[in-house]
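Hi support team,

I submitted a single chain yesterday and got back a structure, but I'm not sure I'm reading the token output correctly. Could someone confirm the output below corresponds to the sequence I sent? I've pasted both exactly as they appear in my results page.

Thanks,
R.
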Amino acid sequence: MSKPLQFSIVLVIGLIMGAVCTSIAIEALSKGTEFSRGVMAVQAAHAIALNKLSKDNRCSAPEIQKELLPMRIIATDIEPAFKSLADQDQQFVRYAADLRRVLDLQLAKGIDNCADLATGISSIKQSCDNCHRDYK
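Hi R., thanks for writing in. Yes, this is the structure output for that exact sequence:
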């Protein structure tokens, strides 16, 4: 076999292996860690519960606080859950801080009616959407 043909075969095999390895690496990185998936899953579960309270017209302060408080506590885990992103990108850190600010505001209001809950849900959703638009 001639040297140019051997070189071409090795080059093609190398390119294919590189493409496959790159694809595997990108897939692994895009899935995140168990910690990051867990933080987002718990936040989503509480957001869904808030929406259900509003939809079911069950807007008492204790029920609302029961969902908002864990969201606020878990919001402190966003940067640690996405450590490499938080270390490299200050915009991500600002989005996480904004979510905590929005949750603090909703908790301080002591929401006890469905109209205020709907406004609060909208603010929380906007804060989440801002980050997810850039990082999901």
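A quick pointer for reading it: The radius of gyration is 22 Å. Let us know if anything else looks off.

Best,
Support desk
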